[in-house]
UniProtKB/TrEMBL annotation:
Domain of life: Bacteria
InterPro entries assigned to the protein according to its UniProt record, in alphabetical order: Polyketide_cyclase/dehydratase, START-like_dom_sf
Pfam families reported for this sequence: Polyketide_cyc2
Organism from which the protein derives: Streptomyces caelestis
Protein name per its UniProtKB record: Cyclase
Spans through the membrane: none
PANTHER family associated with the record: COENZYME Q-BINDING PROTEIN COQ10 START DOMAIN-CONTAINING PROTEIN, CONSERVED PROTEIN TB16.3
SUPFAM superfamilies: Bet v1-like
Top-level taxonomy: Bacteria, Bacillati, Actinomycetota, Actinomycetes, Kitasatosporales
Length: 147
């Protein structure tokens, strides 16, 4: 099994508010630096995204990818790669947990396998940068309130 990278952050908001931002794919270009376009291709019976196309621009890596999402209860979402130009595989998740009154701890796990050769150490560092940027963007977006 591939090694994953994970990181956590505490956000001063209820879990439902955090998950609301995570589930609002159309707004990803507003708060994630790497996502330039997001389009929900398929939804489940509850209206949650099951398949999403993302156009990414992370500097050296530009990609058009489709991800399949699985929602577990109200506090966890995971995704896996359906198709991509640059990646062999991509598995990730957000897990939300209470962190005191009005606060939520968000843990982001990510495993990426690129089609181009890359040292494991460099790949994990890239994963860490992606995770940390996403968590910082998520925190800023949630705590600044709806726009």
């Amino acid at each position: 099994m591939a090694e994953h990278t994970s990181s956590s952050i505490t956000i001063e908001a209820a879990a439902a508010d955090v998950m609301g931002v995570i589930a609002d794919f159309a707004r990803y270009p507003d708060w994630t630096g790497e996502v330039k376009e997001a389009e929900v291709l398929k939804t489940d019976g509850q209206g949650r995204a099951e398949q999403v196309r993302l156009v990414m621009d992370a500097g050296a890596i530009k990609d058009d990818q489709t991800l399949a999402y699985t929602w577990t209860g109200q506090h966890e979402v995971s995704w896996t790669l359906v198709k991509s130009q640059m990646l062999r595989s991509l598995d990730g998740s957000y897990l939300l947990a209470p962190a005191g009154p009005g606060a939520t701890e968000v843990t982001y796990r990510l495993t990426v396998d690129v089609k181009i050769p890359m040292l494991g150490m460099i790949k994990r560092k890239a994963e860490k940068v992606i995770i940390d940027r996403a968590l910082a963007g998520l925190k800023k977006r949630v705590e600044s309130g709806p726009k």
